[in-house]
Hints:
By secondary structure, the chain is mainly α. The chain contains 15 helices and no strands.
Amino acid sequence: MPIHDLGYRGWQGKRLPAWTHWLVIAGTGIKIALRSQWIRRTVLLSWMPAFTLAVVFFAYEQANENQVLQRAPSEEIMLRSLRNSPLQMDPDLEVLVRGLRNSDVSEGRHMVWSWLFTSFFKYSQGAMMLLLVGLIAPPLISKDVRTRAFLMYFSKPIGRLEYILGKISVPAFFVAGITIIPGMLLYVFGVLLAPDFSVVLDTWDMPLRIVAASLVTILPTCSLALMFSSLTSESRFAGFAWFAMWTLGGGAWLIIYFVLEEQARIKEMNLMHVDSNFSMLSLYHTIGKAQRWIFGLEPNFLEVLPSLGLLAGLTVFALLVLWRRVSAPIRV
């Protein structure tokens, strides 16, 4: 290039619409995250419970078709045996047993499928979500703060809303990949294993519930993770805050649960509703309670309203803090 030809020139390439700017940020973040072997392995590992649950769907539909469940032991015997199993802390054992013993195939199938999907989201995918977001989200904004990348972002026609939307889409993409996608595939697998397509009429609402349960997980968790990332320039501090929040909340819930369990054992009381009373101490159990309501295992809306309010409040608070922190470098 001749030296006299230097200077600003018009862009000759194809211009994209302004509303797609956040997609560039999201796509770049996803590509960078996929370079990590740990993240790729975690995503693959998070799909393993879906294959295991597919076997459970197959066994249930086969037993249902051959009327094996109607010859099973009574509800009291089944419930007593399940309470002595690793599922003893599950607050929905009674729903599962009623679904297995229900003479109405349609109603029983809906109850069992709801319990299976709730367990899938709460236990296996809940743990995988915690680990996956903890690996992806901490460096997303803290690295921009440390490297002064804000100067490059906001020197271009990119606004704060586009920046936040692009960044939050990165962990949301991966969480959706371990919740919505395997959940939908499990639903299709269950429909194909059913003896006839009347199962579609019995469980037509499950895909909607799967998406709603995934959003209840994605919105508060990704917002909080990015808030921690925006509060520091060191990714390790943001990661520590993320895992500490879950560890302290879950630990507080477990301590209270076992203390009350011992008291209930002495007084010969039923402890099936400890999760309802103390779930708000733990974000993990708060999300699980909201998912129980979404899948129809908690019929009382007023019982779950405080948990939904807490999740909405945490999401709004995290987004407000995130907006302020992102605005700081360009504030005059």
